[in-house]
Structure formats: C-alpha cells, structure tokens
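Researcher: We plan to redesign the surface later, but first we want a full-length starting point. Tokens attached.
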C-alpha cells in the first residue's frame, strides 16, 4: 500500500464507499466530481524531460490522455492506425503546449507490427518513462485481426503484449518505468477463464467478448507487475468509468443515449490514467486490483467472478504464456 492509498480523510472515505456501492454513482460523472471535491486531488506530477507512449491516441480517452500528458511536460509518442486522425491528435497535443515525440501508424491487432514499433523505438535510443495501453473497442460483430485472431483479443491483449515486450529495455532504463492499461468496469461481470477467452464466430457476442478481454487485461497487468517489479517497472490497470467517446457511441449506442447526461468527458475518463502514468501514486506501485478515480479497488464485486479454488496463483502465468505464444504467431485458435 502506498502513502497515497493510506492518507484519506474519513469524509472522503465515506463518500467513496457510498459511490462504490451504487455503481452508477461511481462510474458516472457524479463519481469523479464528488471524489475530486472531497478528496482534494492535486495536479499529477510534472513530466518535464520524460517521454510517454500512448496507444489509442487518436480518439476518446487515449487522445485526452496524450493531450494531458503533453500538457504535463512529457514528450508524447502517439500510436494510431489512421494517418489524418493521428496527425490531428498530434496537433491537439502541440496546441495544448505539449511536445510530440513521434506519430506511429500501427494496427494494434497486429502483434508483429506492434513489436516492430517497440523495436524501432529501442533502436532509436529514445527514453520511455510510461507506456499507456489505451487502444480498444467493443465490436458488435465478429471481426478477425491481422493474424486471424478475434479482433477484441488481438487489440486488447496480444498486440499490447508484443509492444510491451519489445519496449522493456526502455522501461527498464527509466528511473521508474510505468505501464498503465485501460480496462473497463465491464470486466466485473466476467470471471477469467483462459479456455473461454477467445470467442469463435458462431458464438460471438460483442459485449461478452469485450468484458472477457477487459477481465483478462486485469489479470495480465498484475502478472506483468509481478514479473517486472524487480526491474523497477510498475504495471497497473484502470477502469475509467462511463465516458462519452466515439467508441462508446459505436459500441453501446443505446447505453450512451440513456446515460448521456451523466457520462464523463474524455478528460475525466483519462484522469486516473494520466495521474498513474505521471507517477501520482508514487514510484513502483504494487500490482493488483484495479484503479478507478485515483484509488485502488477490488477486482471483484460479483459472486462467481473470482478464480476457482486452486487457480488464483496460476492464471496470470497461464495468460502470460498464452499471450507470448499468440504474439509470436503460435496462438489464434478459438478456445
Ligand atoms: N468510453 C467508455 O465509457 C469506456 C469505458 C471503459 C473502458 N473504456 C476503454 O477505454 C479505451 C478507449 O476507448 P474510448 O471509449 O476512448 O474509445 P474510442 O474513442 O473509440 O478510442 C479508441 C481508440 O483505440 C484505437 N483503436 C481501436 N482499435 C485499434 C487498432 N486495431 N489499432 C490501433 N488502434 C486502435 C482507436 O483508433 P481509431 O481512431 O483509428 O478508431 C482509438 O484511438 C478502450 O480500451 C476502451 O475499452 C472505455
């Protein structure tokens, strides 16, 4: 537990507990507005001289994170898959006073392309203080990514795994390397089950596929955290709440229409991502749980979503090995 986690006023603790219990209060805009007010949030630490990389930087939460990290003084590498959208995000970072370290067009569903980006950056001799995995989407219909793997799994797990692995030399060289993965509160509905992680076309359901991958991101982030602690790198995972983004509009249009008045702005959705990437929770944050509104929270709220007896200690290692095989072209079959 960090000092930041310990130091909390009883009122802030009580308000937070009520919000957590209501779910909608916690995940909606009400949650961040109330917590920010009662918890007296500081600005995240400045990042002058630091370099960060953000995937999903063209839209929504990732774009807001890239802009905010640039505003904090970091040089920002933006990863997108579309030229005009990526250049427009880079201009927004610069307009906010930030520095763009690079714009990289990479399909994050293609692990070979993700690994090649990491290798290029390592060879360039650049530094990297924080890596933000923001790319992701809920696809209502089945789509296969570059390596024939189902798209949600490829973009949310295998591509990020390949990028992380390739970038490790830079994160290890940083004074306090940080990795932040953007998961989702939707993961609370699913138990991690490697045998049912990848949905085949016949059984595909977009919401279920998305929630399973988001749960798996929590498992994988904790596993990376354990493996990398000795190298001084922390790996944490965030759920941003309900955020009004193009991704929400395309993935869950009815949900967006119903909840629109209380959805978070992209900047509010990015707040904890930015705060953690900037070191707001301190150096070498222990892995585990899931962060939301600048607090570490339990990764389990619903019965039946904890690992079955005997699997709790092994699921991270199993998923890590599966991702490693898939990233090197050895995976891809529907489980
Ligand atoms: N909005 C919410 O309420 C909410 C809630 C929980 C979690 N999240 C998570 O937050 C993250 C950002 O989502 P968002 O709501 O901000 O959606 P968004 O506005 O659609 O942004 C998603 C980003 O991911 C990129 N992306 C998607 N597939 C990609 C691929 N194959 N290769 C490279 N980039 C790819 C998109 O690029 P393009 O611009 O090219 O499409 C875009 O930059 C996601 O991981 C999402 O699951 C969102």
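Model: Full-length starting sequence:
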């Amino acid at each position: 537990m960090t000092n930041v986690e310990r130091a909390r006023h009883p009122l802030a603790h009580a308000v937070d507990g009520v919000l957590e219990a209501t779910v909608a209060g916690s995940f909606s805009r009400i949650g961040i507005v109330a917590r920010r007010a009662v918890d007296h949030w500081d600005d995240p630490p400045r990042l002058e001289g630091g370099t960060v990389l953000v995937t999903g930087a063209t839209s929504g939460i990732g774009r807001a994170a890239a802009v905010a990290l640039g505003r904090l003084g970091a040089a920002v590498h933006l990863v997108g898959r579309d030229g005009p959208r990526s250049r427009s995000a880079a201009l927004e970072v610069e307009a906010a006073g930030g520095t763009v370290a690079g714009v990289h067009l990479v399909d994050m569903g293609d692990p070979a392309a993700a690994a090649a980006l990491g290798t290029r950056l390592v060879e360039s001799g650049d530094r990297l203080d924080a890596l933000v995995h923001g790319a992701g989407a809920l696809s209502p219909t089945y789509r296969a990514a570059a390596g024939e793997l189902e798209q949600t799994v490829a973009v949310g797990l295998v591509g990020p795994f390949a990028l992380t692995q390739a970038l490790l030399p830079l994160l290890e060289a940083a004074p306090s390397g940080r990795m932040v993965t953007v998961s989702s509160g939707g993961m609370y509905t699913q138990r991690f089950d490697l045998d049912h992680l990848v949905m085949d076309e016949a059984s595909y359901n977009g919401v279920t596929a998305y929630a399973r991958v988001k749960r798996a991101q929590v498992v994988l982030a904790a596993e990376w955290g354990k493996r990398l602690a000795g190298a001084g790198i922390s790996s944490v995972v965030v759920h941003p709440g309900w955020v009004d983004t193009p991704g929400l509009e395309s993935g869950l249009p009815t949900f967006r229409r119903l909840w629109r008045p209380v959805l978070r702005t992209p900047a509010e959705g990015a707040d904890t991502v930015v705060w953690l990437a900037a070191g707001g929770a301190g150096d070498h944050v222990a892995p585990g749980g899931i962060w939301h509104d600048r607090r570490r929270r339990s990764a389990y709220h619903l019965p039946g979503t904890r690992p079955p007896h005997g699997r709790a200690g092994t699921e991270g290692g199993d998923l890590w090995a599966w991702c490693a095989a898939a990233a090197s072209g050895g995976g891809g079959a529907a489980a």
